[in-house]
Amino acid sequence: MEILGMPTAVLASQLLVGLINGSFYAVLSLGLAIIFGLLNIINFAHGAMYMMGAFVAWIALTKFGISYWGALVIAPVLVGAFGVAIERILLRRLYKLDHLYGLLLTFGLALIVEGVFRDQFGISGQSYEVPEALAGGIPLGFMFLPTYRAWVVVAALTVCFGTWFMIEKTKLGAYLRAGTENPQIVQALGINVPVLITLTYGFGVALAAFAGVLAAPVFQVSPVMGSNLLIVVFAVVVIGGMGSILGSIFTGLGLGVIEGLTKVVYPEGSSIVVFVVMVIVLFIRPAGLFGRS
Amino acid sequence: MTSAFQPQPEFLRLTDVHAFYGESHVLHGIDLTVHKGECVTLLGRNGSGRSTSLKSIMGLVGRRTGSIMLNGNQIIDEATHRIARRGVGYCPEERAILASLSTEENLTLAPVVASGGMSVDEIYDMFPNLKERRNSPGTKLSGGEQQMLAMARILRTGAKLLLLDEITEGLAPVIVKRLGEVITVLKQRGYTIVLVEQNFRFAAPLADRHYVLEHGELVATIPREELPEKMDWLQQTLGV
Amino acid sequence: MSEFILETRGLSKNFKGFAAVSDVSLKVRRGSIHALIGPNGAGKTTFFNLVTKFLPPSSGTIHFKGEDITHEAPAVSARRGFVRSFQISATFPHLSVLENVRIGLQRKLGTELHFWKSEKSLSKLNDEAMALLDEVGLGRFADTTTAEMSYGRKRALEIATTLALEPELMLLDEPTQGMGQEDISRVVDLIRKVSANRTILMVEHNLSVVADLCDRITVLTRGSVLAEGSYDEVSKNPQVLEAYVGSDDMSDAHH
Amino acid sequence: QISDSVVKIGVLTDLSGQYSDLAGHGSVLATKMAIEDFVAAEKPAFKIEMVTADHLNKADIASAKAREWFEREGVDTVSDVVTTPVALAVMKVAKDKNRLVLGTAPAASSITNENCNDVTIHYGYDTYALANGTAKAVTQQGGKSWFFLTADYAFGHTVEKDASAVVTAQGGKVLGNARHPFPGSDFSSFLLKAQASGAQVIGLANAGADMANSIKQAAEFGITPTQSLAGLLIFISDVHSLGLKNTQGMYLTTGFYWDRNDETRAWSKRFFEQQKKMPTMIHAAQYSAVYQYLKAVKATGTDDTQKVMAQMKKTPINDFFAWGGKIRDDGRMVHDMYLVQVKKPSESKYPWDYYTIKATIPGDEAFQSLADSRCPLIKK
Amino acid sequence: MIRNRSSQETMTRATLAILFVFGLVAPFAIYPTFLMKVLCFGLFACAFNLLLGFIGLLSFGHAAFLGVSGYVCGMMMRDVGVTPELGIISGTLAAGLLGWLFGVLAIRRTGIYFAMITLALAQMVFFLVLQVRATGGEDGFQGVPRGHLLGVIDLSSNMAMYYLVYAVFCFGFFVVHRTIHSPFGQILKAIRENEARAISLGYDVSRFKLVAFVISAALAGMAGATKTLVFQLASLTDVHWHMSGEVVLMTLLGGLGTIFGPLVGSALVVTLESELSDKVGSWVSVIMGAIFVLCVLTLRRGIVGEFKALLKRVGVS
Ligand SMILES: Nc1ncnc2c1ncn2[C@@H]1O[C@H](COP(=O)(O)OP(=O)(O)OP(=O)(O)O)[C@@H](O)[C@H]1O
Ligand SMILES: Nc1ncnc2c1ncn2[C@@H]1O[C@H](COP(=O)(O)OP(=O)(O)OP(=O)(O)O)[C@@H](O)[C@H]1O
Ligand SMILES: [Mg+2]
Ligand SMILES: [Mg+2]
Predict the structure, then answer these.
(1) Do the Cβ atoms of D129 and D366 come closer than 8 Å?
(2) How far apart are CA E160 and CA E146, in angstroms?
């Protein structure tokens, strides 16, 4: 049987590969969406944080002998702490201003972080091996699925839906949503909004670092790994509806699949397909797929 | 200082409070004292600084100086959420209902800061509209319903000092009447209330004392007893 | 020419099954001041939003001077002489008071898209703008930046700007909300003044204003018309008294 | 006569971006070394200065910089000019201003074909030589069916075209290609396609991070043991960052390997001491080109572009980088290339011990012959 | 109040006059190619500022206009062989047309969605430019002749070229200035201040935004075409989203919504880029990043904006 001129087996394997990439998009765009939602800041430094996550994993392994599993915890914590510091020192001053300023500041931050890493580690990138326990692959019949990639999907989805649950279904989540909207009033009701905001930024950034650790064994760990991805992730967030949690998760996964299919049908166009989808979606639904207008 | 023998201990005292928004200096040294269980109003024209006085207590202005004592504690340097946790409930004039939460979530958002607050059921009895629309997103409520919700959500927390900014604004007379009854009950329960009102007919029977503001300064203090004789003057200054 | 300038027929609006406005047929007589009152959540704002096309109706039609305008864009209706004013003060804060009014007048020149012309070409509107400002008593503030004016004066400016469009029908949403007594009387006078040769439909909670100004009153409850008539008629209607005032004397409800 | 009595050499390179490891600061260092060595050895009567700039990989910045150097600072030659778009832009300006370009870093063979001019020397390597060397060797060793993974831009297309021609000429077959956007990050879709094609060899017509990721992911998806990869533009810096585990067994062609003989080792160790990295073929070529240029200036006693160019074209090059190298009329510097295989991790005895040299490809065979040249300067 | 306004106007006039004269003599003191680059980007930023600074529309796709116009101008000059002024005009028209297309698709969106949809459209343009053979793809469109202005004046001299660029810039600057101070500009201001109110006064807001967008796009195109003439090449850099970002930076750095801000911002960015790249090598991005951060934290109104605020403060006290 053939679909789109491909045997079903090939199609199935391409869909799966697309889903794997979609998992990265989902985790990254989720963090971005949370940060935008609560801080009203378009975090241009998100790619840099993702890159830092991967580098922390690499440094932990090569310099301190800390394994992948350790890195999976350490990197988000360290990068999250870095995020907390950034929020406290810099972003805090921008909340009352237009989006534009947050964007500019985080863009500047991204330049700084990337520049420093480039200076320290060169541009070519470093290799990070797949952890022992996840090496090898699973022959699925239609394809050979590297175990590690299967793990990526599982880990990413767990984190995404865990986050969604926390935000939509718990009291803490209600504080977050309320604090997003009108921090002053929520604070006047007795909730410590500044801390809430700081922690949220830290958490969003930690998600990026988590994605970075997940990515380290798959991609070369390089200072530019984040900036290349960032603009696509932005598109994902916008298509999903700015600040919508579920929107960013589903759109991330969905776009991964659509992009994967494009790579097969018209590879040259795979870098542009996200934007085509974006124009179409925004034309039909001005606030994105899941956005509140 | 407060003494245990006084029947009405002093609950809130503002001394020489100045408030600023950015570079504009709005309050020019306000002094006022409210005792436990009292209800006072702040009167004045539009822009005279009544809302700003309430915001200063909550720490919601750009900058403030002077002294604000709450129940014997200096709170001028405290963060807003701490002040709220000391048992101050604030109902802002713009209502500030949260769109991303449902009506009921809005109602239950604020943490309970002390015992003795109303239960959700009591509140629904008081405002049946809210019960009916409990699952609707907060800002999809009508203007008046939002006003009820803004008031209701601070009744739940057990806060003993209520700062109420124009709570009758946009409410139908039926509801205004009910609110008047509620405030009377609250007073009896020992709540301390600072009211900012345009609706003098509503405020006059409730208040123990009236403070009159003009251009950010306190120009008169009128105890309830003196109200009849000062009515003419008030009419002139405020146009009521 | 019909006696009624605005007419709705069976206008309804549902929000996810909740009927905020149901089957309201309302006629506004040409040259009258018509008020819409009712308890909170009765559907006044929703009705207003339907009539001004800020919300699409679930069913029913809207007619302006006998023409069906249910599906017309707001800007188009505005050009027909059907203008709304806003609940929140709707001015252009960083323009001068004169410029504010001129924006309203400018469309008549037909040069609003001429980006190559000098601004000075607008000076010929100044006299007309001044006349309008004088009409609402703002003549001496012509050069003030709007943001610096008091609430009541902004309200007056907004009305002056609206008048620039030579509206036949003005819709006012709670025109006295948030005002001190002094401003209220100023605005009431103003409305009375500009109502000559015009029709006004307003939503208002302040019953003294309603009693003062309005020729005809429609009372909404739970999305439907409960009563309609002059102030005297309505204020004697026991149903209205119960649903809206909560006592048996309407004057209790005056501010 | 030397203008301003100074010979000014500009190093216009990528100091901060994608290509800063394979050219970048290394090129600056190589230039510095060449100047110092030349001064020490030849004691020239003229002063030599070096200026450097980062073109951020933008052709317009490069062209503006070159123009400024020529117009304001009296720069005599611009060197390195990494990436083809940059090189082409600089060549145009240089031609206008009649100054020399020492292209040690750009790849495209078009520099000495349709885009050639009489002020440019393409030194070191080009896509033709690399593709030719690798593709020929791999096909000859039995890799008859190929699939290309190509970066979708001019450079990738050129490499793919050059290599396909060689493969077919050797009796091999090209089964298909996948053109991926540049830059990309996940190549698994394309690799699965390559896998499905059943080709014996997957030719990587991409560079830098793209190539590194392709190689890594090919191993991950279990493609490499069954199908082999052939990198068509790999630098030692890439192998270093990818590690031998990922790259072992690959064939590639290079113009320089530091561990080839005593001379290369001696120079490379000096380079290493300052840079902490072994030189790429671009760094070595940069040294050689600058040295040759200075020699020609000294020999002619002028920095006049045409005279120096004529001198350089008639002087054979014999140094650690190239033995018996020569600069042809189309500007191509022709020298021996080396087909190498990447060592297994177990075979690597010391740091940077990465390659086994499998064959030396004589210059005339390695580079496109003058007869096939599309350069208008070559009269046929 | 009135006096205040007119004194501000006098000051703007005086600054304009001084700058104009400075522009005339500058190439004798400063390297002309550098000046030309500053002017081209300055015009680009002015065009962008018209949208963001005066209507509040953040377009993140302005590179498309700069770039496409550059390519069109390049093709007309090199492959068709028209004179430079026709090259610039055709580039400008092409950008205007493209702007109209973008505008029709994007104008009804607001805020971040508007920014993103313009970005997406610009990415598609980038893709087309990359894929279409005639543009030279990654290699760029090279070897554009400067030609003879009106068929007479040889532009290969930097001085002649400079005065053409200067004339183009002044024209563009004038158009922006005029647009802001026109009946149309009045409505734009009104829309920025209170869009809902403008609608209720009977103005079809989308149409105004669209016209402004097209003007801005065409002017950006004019800058792009001129830049192609100066550097004799059009490259992917000009169509890349980084360029769209850079123009935001220039405008903000100089002062959003000020008349001279964009020019100052572009001069600063161009200077930094060329000076830093020689001196600090790989630290250039770190330094640029630090400048943005500092700028956001301390110079929020941009250089010109802060300067004006300072003058005002000094004037008041
Ligand atoms: N956020 C702010 N920034 C700057 N100035 C403000 C701000 N809020 C209020 N003001 C100014 O402070 C003064 C006092 O305002 P305030 O809101 O306290 O008045 P009010 O007595 O409550 O009147 P109203 O009837 O308008 O609510 C006014 O002149 C007002 O313009
Ligand atoms: N967008 C919406 N979605 C859901 N429910 C809505 C929406 N808008 C209004 N409602 C509901 O419809 C009812 C009528 O609302 P409306 O705002 O018209 O009341 P109103 O008569 O203006 O009241 P008020 O005097 O309090 O302003 C209310 O119960 C409100 O909760
Ligand atoms: Mg107030
Ligand atoms: Mg209402």
Answers:
(1) yes
(2) 11
Beta strands in A83-208 (DSSP E): 137-139, 144-146
pLDDT in tens, chain C (255 residues): 578 888 999 999 998 888 889 899 999 998 899 999 888 888 888 998 888 888 889 999 999 888 888 888 877 887 788 877 765 557 888 888 888 888 888 877 777 777 777 777 777 778 888 888 887 778 888 888 887 776 667 777 888 888 887 788 888 888 877 777 777 887 788 888 888 888 999 888 888 888 888 889 999 998 899 888 888 888 888 888 888 877 666 665 555
Report whether D89 contacts E235 (CB < 8 A). Answer: yes
Q: Is the dihedral of CA E73, E75, E76, E81 positive or negative?
A: positive
Interface of A with D in 109-128 (CB under 8 A): 115, 118, 122-127
Q: Which residues pair with B102 in a beta bridge?
A: B137
Distance of CA C118 to the CA centre of its chain: 34
For residues B141 and C15, give the distance between their C-alpha atoms in angstroms, rounded to a whole number: 11
E205: nearest Cα among E103, E61, E63: E103
Query: CA–CA separation, C8 vs C27, rounded Å?
Result: 7
> Per the structure block, which two tokens stand in for C245?
């005032």
The residue in chain A having the minimum alpha-carbon distance to the alpha carbon of residue E125 is A272
Do E137 and D154 lie within an 8 Å CB cutoff?
Answer: yes
Spatial CA neighbour of C60 closest among C19, C10, C105: C10
Secondary structure letter of residue B180 according to DSSP: H
The domain ranges of chain B are 10-238
Ligand closest to B62 (CA) is 1
Instruction: Tell whether ipTM is more than 0.90.
Output: no
| Residue spans per domain, chain A | 2-112+148-284
For chains A and B, what is the number of CB pairs under 8 angstroms? 62
- Residue of A127, A143, A264 with shortest CB distance to D241: A127
Both ends of chain A: CA-CA distance in Å? 43
**Tokens coding D63:** 């062209």
**Backbone dihedral angles phi then psi of residue C208, each to the nearest 5 degrees:** -65, -35
Domain ranges in chain E are 13-239
**How far does Cα A252 stand from its chain's mean position?**
9
Tokens representing A90?
Answer: 């810099």
CA dihedral E110, E115, E118, E121 (to 10 degrees): -120
The 10 Å CB-count burial string (b at 16+, else e) for E61-78 is bbbbbbbbbbbbbbbbbb
Nearest beta carbon to residue A242 from set E112, E124, E288: E112
DSSP annotation string for C201-227: EEE---HHHHHHH-SEEEEEETTEEEE
Separation of alpha carbons C103 and E194, rounded Å: 12
> For the whole model, what pTM was predicted?
0.85
Name the residue among E238, E243, E254 with its Cα closest to residue E291: E254
Distance of CA C87 from the midpoint of ligand 3 (Å) = 16
One of 3.40.50.300, 3.40.50.880, 3.40.47.10, 2.10.220.10 is the CATH number of B10-238, namely 3.40.50.300
Return the CATH number of the domain spanning residue range C1-81+168-255: 3.40.50.300
Q: Is residue C239 a contact partner of residue C217, using CB atoms and an 8 Å limit? A: no
Residues with CB under 5 A from ligand 3 (ion): B 51, 93
Ligand 2 midpoint to CA C80 (Å): 28
* Residue type at A28 in one-letter notation: L
Rounded distance from Cα C26 to ligand 2 centre (Å): 19
Q: Under CATH, which architecture does the A2-112+148-284 domain have?
A: Orthogonal Bundle (1.10)
